[in-house]
Amino acid sequence: MRALIFLAVLLCGWPVLASERCDVQAPTFKVELGEVQLAYQSIGRASDPVLLMVMGLGGQLIHWPDEVVARLCEQGFRVIRFDNRDVGLSSWVQAAPPANLAYEALRYRLGLSVSAPYRLRDMAGDALGLMDALGVRQFHVLGASMGGMIAQHLADLVPARVQSLTLIMTSSGAQGLPAPSPALLALLAEREAPSREVAVEQQADLLAALGSPLVSDDRQALLQQAETAYDRAFNPEGVQRQLLAILAESSRVELLNRLQVPTLVVHGTADPLLPAMHGVHVAAHIQGSALKLIPGLAHRFQEAFKEPLLAAVLPHLKANHRDGHWARL
C-alpha cells in the first residue's frame, strides 16, 4: 500500500516538477561578446541538451510563445532564447542606417549590392559566441524567418556542433522566389512614430497583415502584444539595420548545398511575407532535409497553429535527441 501511495505521489508530482524546471519567467541575463552584449534567457536544467531559438526581424525573445517554449522544455531540453543585436535588451549598434531604405531595397531587387552595418553571418557569430560563453559544445537550433537565415549560417559555421536544424517560415534568399506585396513591405519598413500610441498601432497593423486569412485576430490582443514589446524595448533604427543585413545577403544556395545537418523545414501555405515556395526551395537544397507544409499558417505564431507547429517540430527533435534522455522529467 505504501508503495502504491508513493508511486501515486511521484506520478502526480511530475507535472509540478516539470513546471518548476520549465519556468518561462526565468531571469534574463546578459553576456559580453566583444563589442556586442546579448540578453538571453535559459529555461530548463543545465544538464539537458540545449535548444537555441533564434528570432526573426525585429523580434525579441518574448516573441517566442511561452507555451511553446515550456512544451519544448518539458520534452527534456534546456531552451535558450535571446535578443539579437539591435533589438530588445541586447546591444544597439550606433551606426545609422542609410537614409533611404527604399533605395537600398530597389538595389536588392535589381541584383545590385546593398550596404549594411553588419551581415547575417555576423549575427550567427553572436549566437555562436553565446553558446561559447555558456560553455555549450553541442546544441540544436530552431530559427524563424530571419532567425532561420541566421541558423543556416550557424550550421555552416560549426556543422559538428549543431545536432539538428529546424527552419520555420524562412528563405534561401535566392533571386526569383515570390516576393511579398509592396503594401506589406511598406508596413514592415514603417518605423517612424511620433508617439507610443502611433508605434503600437503600426505594430498591430503589421501583426494583422502577417496573420493567416483563416484566423480572425482580436485587435485588442494585437495591441497588447505590441504594447508589451514597445515597453520592453523600441529601436526602429535597429530593425532597419537588421533588414539591411537581410538585403545585403546574396543567395545562400551554395551554403545550403553543403549542409549535412539533420534539418526540418516548416512553412505555411498562407505566408504573405515569404510565400511557401521559399520553404520548398530551402528544403530542396539541404541534403536529406524534411519539409512540412502547414495549411493556413502565415508568418506569425498564432494560437490556432501552435499545436500543428509542435506536431511538426517535436518528432524531428526527438529523432535527433542523441543522448537518450528524451522527455526525461
From TrEMBL:
<feature type="signal peptide">
    <location>
        <begin position="1"/>
        <end position="18"/>
    </location>
</feature>
<feature type="domain" description="AB hydrolase-1">
    <location>
        <begin position="49"/>
        <end position="299"/>
    </location>
</feature>
<dbReference type="GO" id="GO:0004806">
    <property type="term" value="F:triacylglycerol lipase activity"/>
</dbReference>
<dbReference type="InterPro" id="IPR000073">
    <property type="entry name" value="AB_hydrolase_1"/>
</dbReference>
<dbReference type="InterPro" id="IPR050471">
    <property type="entry name" value="AB_hydrolase"/>
</dbReference>
<dbReference type="Pfam" id="PF00561">
    <property type="entry name" value="Abhydrolase_1"/>
</dbReference>
<protein>
    <submittedName>
        <fullName>Pimeloyl-ACP methyl ester carboxylesterase</fullName>
    </submittedName>
</protein>
<dbReference type="InterPro" id="IPR029058">
    <property type="entry name" value="AB_hydrolase_fold"/>
</dbReference>
<keyword id="KW-0732">Signal</keyword>
<dbReference type="GO" id="GO:0046503">
    <property type="term" value="P:glycerolipid catabolic process"/>
</dbReference>
